[in-house]
Description:
Blueprint: E1 2-5, H1 7-15, H2 20-28, E2 32-35, E3 40-47, E4 50-59, E5 62-71
Parallel strand pairs: 1-5
Antiparallel strand pairs: 2-3, 3-4, 4-5
Amino acid sequence: xxxxxxxxxxxxxxxxxxxxxxxxxxxxxxxxxxxxxxxxxxxxxxxxxxxxxxxxxxxxxxxxxxxxxxxxxxxxx
Length: 77
């Protein structure tokens, strides 16, 4: 799976001091995946008491990371 980062995701990762390796680990091996709107997926991985949420969308063979942020809880949709 080829993982591409949007400019927005790279900006947010820089602000939150998250490495590409950490985010790619969540994309490849999430604890939970939830479907979102417009064919997007929300991928979650638990770290200590928070979850890292990575929003992705498939574009052909590529997976594009749209945004990344920490959440205390996630909603099952």
